[in-house]
Amino acid sequence: MRLFALVAAGLSVLAAGACSGAEEAPMTLTVSAQTWAGAPDGDSAQESVTLPADEGESVELPLAQGERLEVSGRDGERVELTTSVPMAPAGDGGGINLRDTRTDFSLAPGEPVEFSTPSMDSGTTWTVTVAP
């Protein structure tokens, strides 16, 4: 009888754990920034910052003037990001897309996202990666 009670208690703990939903594995975002200028002799600066890839986490973008990046959602390994101001995403053939500025970006491990200040003369490009 005692063995039966122990087995029943163990099974109820397993069932409760299965119903509560699994927590997402910890992941880290790395935000790397590089300034650029249209002139070939323009000065360039680089900086990076890391933060947990958890919903609600936010950080001031490196080499920015108060612009922020927030983790707005997470579904497994896919991470949704929101910027505080519209940014120009990387173009398909290189460069930036000034016709499609946005504040929402999505990435997963092995799929970095790149966006820049929407400017043609000088600005900053950020590359965001996520890793377990």
UniProtKB/TrEMBL annotation:
Question: Where does the record place Polar residues bias?
Answer: 116-132
Q: Tell me the leader sequence span.
A: 1-18
Keywords in alphabetical order, please: Signal
Q: Locate the region Disordered.
A: 34-59, 109-132
Q: Does the keyword Membrane apply?
A: no
Is Signal tagged as a keyword? yes
The record's annotation in PROSITE patterns points to: PROKAR_LIPOPROTEIN
According to UniProt, the name of this protein is: Lipoprotein
